[in-house]
Amino acid sequence: xxxxxxxxxxxxxxxxxxxxxxxxxxxxxxxxxxxxxxxxxxxxxxxxxxxxxxxxxxxxxxxxxxxxxxxxxxxxxxxxxxxxxxxxxxxxxxxxxxxxxxxxxxxxxxxxxxxxxxxxxxxxxxxxxxxxxxxxxxxxxxxxxxxxxxxxxxxxxxxxxxxxxxxxxxxxxxxxxxxxxxxxxxxxxxxxxxxxxxxxxxxxxxxxxxxxxxxxxxxxxxxxxxxxxxxxxxxxxxxxxxxxxxxxxxxxxxxxxxxxxxxxxxxxxxxxxxxxxxxxxxxxxxxxxxxxxxxxxxxxxxxxxxxxxxxxxxxxxxxxxxxxxxxxxxxxxxxxxxxxxxxxxxxxxxxxxxxxxxxxxxxxxxxxxxxxxxxxxxxxxxxxxxxxxxxxxxxxxxxxxxxxxxxxxxxxxxxxxxxxxxxxxxxxxxxxxxxxxxxxxxxxxxxxxxxxxxxxxxxxxxxxxxxxxxxxxxxxxxxxxxxxxxxxxxxxxxxxxxxxxxxxxxxxxxxxxxxxxxxxxxxxxxxxxxxxxxxxxxxxxxxxxxxxxxxxxxxxxxxxxxxxxxxxxxxxxxxxxxxxxxxxxxxxxxxxxxxxxxxxxxxxxxxxxxxxxxxxxxxxxxxxxxxxxxxxxxxxxxxxxxxxxxxxxxxxxxxxxxxx
Length: 660
Description:
The protein has helices at residues 6-9, 27-41, 96-108, 112-120, 127-141, 151-154, 157-168, 175-184, 195-210, 215-229, 234-244, 253-264, 270-284, 293-305, 312-325, 331-344, 349-362, 368-380, 386-399, 405-417, 425-439, 445-457, 463-469, 472-479, 487-503, 534-548, 610-621, 631-634, 640-651; strands at residues 3-5, 65-68, 72-75, 85-86, 124-126, 555-559, 565-572, 578-579, 589-596, 625-630. By secondary structure, the chain is an alpha+beta fold. Strands 6, 7, 8, 9 and 10 form a five-stranded mixed sheet that branches. The N and C termini lie far apart (93 Å). The model is unreliable at 1-92 (pLDDT under 50).
């Protein structure tokens, strides 16, 4: 491990001494040293004062330091316990325990000045720790869009000494010190022609070509090059090639995830690396239990970008450990986890339970984007979770101003899709109406249509906005530059118009023109109805034939004039007798059987989806006798006789007036 000694590197004057720290320098000597270092740094560092260039530095430092009881570090010259032992009686006696103490102390600092003061009191500091210190400095100075190091940091003599040492002789650095220094330069903007950067890159290239970099160093170098030079960097191929030649079982969990991130940066080459990815996916199964929340989310994100849909065993195992870490994810990490689960279609009841508890407890503090993603996850997976829906509704009522128009739509739509009105529904939709009244034009047309359509599914009809939706101006905006409106938008418009007719008789605004109305809500890819479960239909059909005596007495998949498709229709005359389905006269009543399979309900529940509840509600308002035949009732029947008796009760109960 290379060591950097400030006494030797700050200047080469024979009468220059360090007493405990840099603080012992006399004013005249400091100015001399400052001038000398400034001249060395000028080509790549001091130019920062002349033009808006942002630079990052990571290098090594020196001084002796002690550990007391293994808990803290004490610079030479400060009072310590008599039980203290010296770190470096020989200059290479730094242990893993010492490193852990150093990094724990380093991570406890809250400002770059504290870090620089700390390392300036140390006499001998390994290059890996020095690079870590500079990495920490750049981490703390990376604030928002302003990635420029402050002038007081740039002019700090300890900081200059670190940078100068790394720039002057990188060949003496350890692999870890070298690549960590380079990695630090990726945290802030750096001049591509800076002497520091060019020297570090040249040394990395030299060691790479010699094959002398270890696995961890290759991983750090690869990711650093992507940030500095982009994924098209030619050196990256050599790094990946060398990593592919290593034994994956020797990779640490952190290195495995870093390798995923490197491959993630060039998804266009996924076919080229798929064989290696398959090995990685299998090997990763054994390291999942050791991943931190951050690494779990990063691995899931990489699997999404690399489209590793065949790695479902890995996704499932990652999901198992995600459950344990949900309270510890940052908002960004939780969002990435949810995006991955949406992408891979993954869900399980343990994750849902943990997510419910987390969202219910911290929803008011969650980032709006995360709240929207939670709702999207529930919507996509048809998860009917009252704790989540109630918490999100309360959050929106309290903090609606934090949500963008798109986020507002993503938050409200699941309530309609999952057919749920929260306890504070009146406050929720009053708040939504106020937002729409003041920010109507800020909502993208298709987003607005989906939002209002979702409200109508749970009988919160957007009467105050229907006139604007059906207006030629809005329809033109909805179509945009496309030659015609998409089928889903047309279907939503049609169902909203049907809702206005059936459920809002007081609506007197513009009507939807016939050219914007669809003939059927049951169409591929843009359906407002769920297709009938064929196996369930076959079971019911057998029972109906036994009950009615012939297939002649009922029709299947009947398209009504009102766009809905009825699973099974039975016609009754005035006396309640069943008519053949071919008869079109003397029909007194039509019975609509809704044969509801599992896909018409929320996941693992008996709660009907919003679009199916709306269909049954509308059929009832149109005069049909609606009879629901849910799958969970059919599954409980043990014989054909029980099925016939069940259908008889459903169709011809005492108050139905029907006969057969």
